[in-house]
């Protein structure tokens, strides 16, 4: 159980552009006032928290910022208790709690006054409408709002030297190590989450008229699955305008570990036709084909440097899940790419 500022340092490391609700989620579990109840909500009553945390991760939609913040908070507490708190306890003669609370308070307030974004972040949290909060057992949204206001004031009004035990260097090392660990842990469970998504494939369908009176999609290939390569069935379309080809788009039917990074949709618009939003329009035209195979959510990925493709996802209303490091086994890594933006598009 580190200080709230250490939770925020973790959150900022994991998601530098995280939403306000993501940070609210990183506060929420500590709103539970009773220590015995908090031991239950934090899984501290168990000798091994890894299994319930993994189960919670599989139930946490990657697009739910608040729930993602709660998950990160609980994971951080677990790792902090093992790597920091338990080491502190070993240095005491059993009467550790009051000294420990003092040291983490010192570490938290020092971090607040030596982190350039901390004050503005706490102001954002205090200004956030409580109606957007998620739920915490036995705690109201008003309780959580008041807890944020109280802790905002406390951080402003207190200042101190750094903790002797939980030094800034110790905290930085912990955050760097555990943030990288969490990212890999979370990605593995996001892959499992998407791989469990519903999909139906008995045969290829004959696509209906896929047109919006400006562009149309013309199916040029239906490629069967290649199980030994873990390739799912796919459709390939030409994007046409006025009967002429202006690009292409493909749709992969199914979910696999590889498609977490490669996505269900790939598109490209010919250079002379770029800048008109045709890629986003083509994606929308694919929605009936996705639904015909029972797919309600799809991943669209793009190289983290591909600004145009990122804007296409934003036009669609797709949610950026994360910038994920590409594993060495993936074809994209072999092509020289190292980080991929992972978007989820809900097509209902």
Name the shape in a single word: elongated
Helix-strand category: alpha+beta
Strand content: 5-15%
Q: What would the average pLDDT be, to the nearest integer?
A: 96
Q: Count of DSSP E strands? A: 7
Rounded radius of gyration (Å): 24 Å
Major sheet strand order: 1-2-3-4
Total of DSSP H or I helical runs spanning 4+ residues: 13
**Biggest sheet record:** 4 strands, antiparallel
Low-pLDDT stretches = none
Estimated helix fraction: 40-55%
Gap between N and C termini: 39 Å
Element-by-element helix/strand order: HHHHHHHHHEEEHEHEHEHE
Short description:
The chain is an alpha+beta fold. Helix content is 49%, strand content 15%. The protein contains 13 helices and 7 strands.
Written overview of the protein:
- With 348 residues, the chain is of the alpha+beta class.
- It contains 13 helices and seven strands.
- It has helices at residues 4-14, 20-27, 35-41, 50-59, 65-90, 97-113, 118-127, 141-157, 168-195, 257-262, 278-292, 307-316, 331-334; strands spanning 216-223, 234-241, 244-252, 265-269, 297-303, 319-325, 339-346.
- The chain has a four-stranded antiparallel beta sheet, covered by helices on one side. The chain has a three-stranded antiparallel beta sheet with strand order 5-7-6, with helices on both faces.
- Strand 2 (234-241) and strand 3 form a beta hairpin.
- It is elongated, with a radius of gyration of 24 Å.
- The two termini are 39 Å apart.
- The mean pLDDT is 96.
